Amino acid sequence: MTSTITKPKLAVYKFASCDGCQLSLLDAEDVLLDVVGVIDVANFLEASREVIPGPYDVSLVEGSITTPHDAERIRHIRSESKFLVTIGACATAGGIQALRNWKDVSEFTSLVYANPQYIDTLETSTPIKDHVDVDFELRGCPINKMQLVEVVAAFLQGRKPNVPTYSVCVECKQRGISCVMVSHGTPCMGPVTQAGCGAICTAYNRGCFGCYGPMESANTEALSEQWKALGVDDRGLMDAFRGFNAWADAFREASDRHEAALSVQGVTE
Amino acid sequence: MTNPANPIRRIDVDYLARVEGEGEMHVEVIDGKIEKVEFGIFEPPRFFEAFMRGRMYTEAPDITARICGICPVAYQMSASHAMEDALGVTVDGQLRALRRLIYCGEWIESHGLHIYMLHAPDFLGYESAIHMAADYPEIVEQGLRLKKAGNDVVNLIGGREIHPINVRVGGFYRAPTKAELLTMVPELEWARDAALKTVQWVSQLPIPKMEQDFEFVSVCHPDEYPFNEGRLKSNKGLDIPVSEFNEAFAELHVERSNALQSVIRERGAYHVGPLARYALNFDKLGPLAQDAAYEAGLGPVCNNPFQSIVVRAVETLYACNEALELIDAYETPAESHVPMVAKAGIGHGATEAPRGMLYHRYELDDEGRILEAQIAPPTAQNQLTMEDDLRVVLEENLDMSDEDLGWRLEQTIRNYDPCISCATHFLDFTIERKESGAES
Are A19 and B421 contacting, i.e. CB atoms less than 8 angstroms apart? Predict the structure, then answer.
């Protein structure tokens, strides 16, 4: 530090996840060197050996809580962070690994590992907010790197991040893409999924599969009716809601509704 | 340093940096003799192989992509090939070419990231590429732009860089037009030049000397440098179809690791990744990459894991050139994917992730739902080889200070560009040095 002006300190942490959301920061190639010019990347192990001790102005947290050790670690991180921002579906909704929450984890362990006694894991994969207070949750599997830059800038400037909470449908309209459900009968999660991806799936002739999680007050029942009209059964709907944001309230409830319908029909998994 | 009052020398490097994911290493040295080298992976287990049971075969490419944000294309490719094998479908022609092209993009992106952001700082003594950028701004900018050129390919074909949305079993949801691909040519031409400069630059880095007798394993194709298809071969006699993976290799579960370690049955550790591909397929690299390799001082086989940075650069050059050739020969296909019907079966797929061979196996029921899934990621396969390297580096450098030795050992691990999220975590490693005559 050569000047008396201290740059704000950023930390990046990983829990159970794929590394993709923190990679988004390194993938912001055009702005990366500008970003590191105005903030101190004080603790970002994917990028640097150097760890400058806390406290930190902003901590970005990727991944979900799946071990007793991690449940402790996140409390410590919270205590060292002025703002704690979760990045991605794992940190915000438990991630794809939250599919374990419907199963018996000891059975999972013995399926994957020959010596399950070596494995220390919790029964559930849960989002960060179930363990500590979170200042902002950035959605996506993966997150949108430009939204990440916006969120970091907003916290450093002391303002609210400009991240829309409307559905993917709005982004489709903005891009002038005709509705894939209406025009070619493709089941699409877009009407209940928060925007942020830029409506990429519909632009590539496929239906949205819910990477950004439920939009505000998502009407999942109406969507289920639409999908059923297109020929998707309860099993297909249950699986669709049990994706990368399976443990987000609206999607979890919808998937449970379809599971209950399946058991009424006498269909077991 | 040894302190007579405290004869145990301990170096703690909690959370090894500049790798993808989390792991642990514990090394013990007594009287200058190495007693223990353990490289443990304890990334929290995520149980992909278990929770995929019951899901449709069509979901495997998107679900398994989430194993790794650095190499999602590799997961999508191995999963797609395994499913197509189970369903008896072949993807050919321009759709096959598109798969090679998106894989070129991932190699350029992943190798660019590792060479410039993760590995080069070790050779020059910087904590990170951000620190390195203060003294080498043009180099770091070149690295970022090269990486971006790779990301642009994945983005255009896949819809986004991380977890692409356009890959499906049987091909793609939408095949890009020739005109779309042509927009990438100028930047890829720049990238090809930059990759050549990268080979020259990394070959001049101070590279530690080391010579290992590796058993290299990679996918080998009769006509191509390997991405998606071929037999599994080694330099010590292995030559099998992908479907015999489980007969040739065993996955062991040891304490302190949440990843399964792979061995070749009866023989032990083996090596997958750029060095293996290079040694087994040098003749398929083409003159541009071959000449660059020779000029960088490499022969057709490289047994020094610290030189993997040079081999990665050579592969990046190959991938840039291959991408340009694929685009040149591309004709927009009439269909974006091959049709298929769900049925019961078993399928295998092995493709070359940037870090090495990635094997998937699925068993499907007659509706096409997954009964069983098996995934052998490259970093898990390299675990034992990484331990062997650590042992050699330790033996040869015991006179180094704890700090220098610790860093050198980290670098030894980073030679493999380990993706610990894939293998299942961060390196939290300790070195203990004891003297047997002393009380500890």
Answer: yes
